[in-house]
Known about the structure:
Blueprint: H1 18-22, H2 29-33, E1 41-46, E2 52-58, H3 61-67, H4 71-76, H5 79-87, E3 90-95, H6 99-113, E4 128-132, E5 142-144, E6 153-158, H7 161-175, H8 211-225, H9 231-245, H10 249-266, H11 283-294, E7 302-309, E8 317-324, E9 327-328, E10 334-337, H12 346-368, H13 370-374, H14 380-387, E11 399-403, H15 406-418, E12 426-430, E13 435-437, E14 445-446, H16 452-482, H17 493-503, H18 506-511, H19 514-518, H20 525-537
Parallel strand pairs: 7-11, 11-12
Antiparallel strand pairs: 1-2, 1-3, 4-5, 4-6, 7-8, 8-9, 8-10, 12-13, 13-14
Helix pairs in contact: 7-10, 9-10, 11-16, 12-15
Amino acid sequence: MRGGRFRLNNPSNQSLAVPDLLHREKPDLKGKIHDVPHKPGVYLMRDRLNRVIYVGKARNLRKRVGQYFMASRKLAADLKTRALLESVWDFEYHTVRSEPEALLLEGKLIKEFRPRYNISFRDDKKFLLVKVNLNDPFPRFVLTRFKKDDGARYFGPFAHSGALRTTLNWMKKKFGLRSCRPQVPGELDYKHCLDHIIRNCSAPCILKISAEDYRGRVLAACEFLEGRSQEMVLAVQDEMRKAAEKLDFERAAALRDMLEDLRQTTRPMRRFTRHSLPSTVDPAADLQALQDALGLPHPPFVMECFDISNISTTHVVASMVNFAGGVPDKSGYRRYRIRTVPGQDDFASMAEVVRRRYSRVLLEGRAACPADAEFSQENPAESLQRLAKKSASVRLPDLIIVDGGKGQLSSACRELQRLGLHELPIIGLAKENEEIHRPGRHLPLELPEDSGALRLLQRIRDEAHRFANSFHQLLMKRRVAESILDDCPGVSENRKQLLLRRFGSVERIRRATPEEIAATEGIGQKLAEQVAAYLREH
């Protein structure tokens, strides 16, 4: 999430330092969108006084939030949406594990902040819970919206009430649970209930089952609601498949819908309470969490992350982004064109860019203090750590991150070994399952999705990916622009390269005079006039 923390200690949702807020600069919202991940979550829009004015949820945060800042959106919007867009000064977001979790968090935050542009969830209505009191002689499952301190067990909240009711009806039949209201079944006129006849209930009211056996059924149902008993879901799935094989498609479709309801209800979900509401990015806390997760001697204040972009074999490029104190330090960004690797080879490309990056750092360190480097018996890492106190430009990172799995990590480690920098902490972050690979460890490290350490790694990885892709797109645009010279009469491939080497781009050639073009080696006055005229027409 980006922006400031949720002000949970300010229930009125009013900012206190109003004069300072009125004079602050508006953030680059379109630029911030590039940092938003393609994941489900909740976003908050804030006005100039830092008040939350709108809370929304999204299956894909970047696509949803990005729509707000499209020029066409404002033109086609209604009056309410247009007023919201004009009031937005900043935004922040929080990722969750699933869309139902996003719905739960959205409702919680709307009730917390009561934004002026939200309509839904502003009332006191809460999501449904399932309650069962195991202290009763014959416990029963009931729906409620309020959790009380009455010794009962509560499950939920559940985002989809329809799926929850379907699940409870299925549990009632599967486990033989009673649905009658008396605390002890049989106290009232139970003859009106026919559930035991149609085998929807184990009938403790007429003593068909003992209280101990019935309690066992209730505990099994509790395990199912907690998602710890998936055998029954698999049984429903098997029944659905058999119905389809028998061409009983109506039965199979009904089982398919019920199966989806069961999965939605039993999927593990977090409960968001007032004291556990997610906050925005806290770089210091995330750095500390990353230190603890990786077992580093100190927080990785300076981190460098590498990514390879090989969308096509025409231009294979790499990027290196630098984070200082948990936030981007764009002055330390670097981009590379892969020179020595033919075709698409991520491992060799990663080796080249790591070798080039840290070879240059070592050379700059020797150049900064040549007398110290000439007779030094220190290894390169120790020498640079000492020289960093004199010059900040030669500092090595506290942590190196490569975008990829074991292959990319091994390639980078080999190059660091050759340079004498094998003691530098380095990890690989694999995209598919967000696994962290470490040198010498066979099993990857998996952090919780809501871990601050993982979110920090994802931010730096996504920034490296964005920076590499933007460089790749820039080179492709240049290639398209340069191709216009291929059709210019009299301009061979050699002359084209001479012109581009002298002027740098087609746009600069277009702005040049024929005399300036003729000053290029191998280009005469007549050809220069032809080139200038051709570029003016095209």
